[in-house]
Amino acid sequence: MDPFLLKTLHVAGALGVFAGLGAIAAAADDKNRKLAGMLHGISLLLLLLLGFAMLKKPPMDQHWWQVKLVLWLFLGAAPALAKRKVLPAAALLGICVALGAVAAYMAMAKPF
């Protein structure tokens, strides 16, 4: 597949993840929270699949992609943390945005 298309869809998946998180945090009723959860889950799956499609074969001597997997797992657990009110919604969203920035840095700089 075209690398530009893969990157574009990967970024669209990331936007969907954060839109879903924001909608979950701001949802007033269960119907809207369910739709936001579906957006979040589908976007996470898209993000994971496209990330591995861009890697083709994970570079085992580099560890930046493993850090991104751990960040992906935290973003996947964030709706459960929001539902159980482990953290205030604003703090959770701030942490998720910061982790998204770390993931973007890992992808661009590949520091290790």
Strand content: under 5%
**Radius of gyration using CA atoms only:** 15 Å
C-alpha geometry: globular
Q: Characterize the largest beta sheet: strand count, sense, and whether it forms a barrel.
A: none
Q: What share of the residues lie within helices?
A: over 70%
Number of extended strands = 0
SSE string, helices as H and strands as E: HHHH
Derived from helix and strand composition plus strand pairing, the structural class reads: mainly alpha
The DSSP helix count reads 4
Quaternary structure type: single chain
| Uncertain regions spanning at least 5 consecutive residues | none
Mean of pLDDT: 92
Gap between N and C termini = 27 Å
Note down, in words, how this protein is organized.
- This protein has 112 residues and is mainly α.
- It is 81% helix and 0% strand.
- The chain has 4 helices and no strands.
- The protein has helices at 3-26, 30-55, 64-83, 89-109.
- The protein starts with a helix and ends with a helix.
- The mean pLDDT is 92.
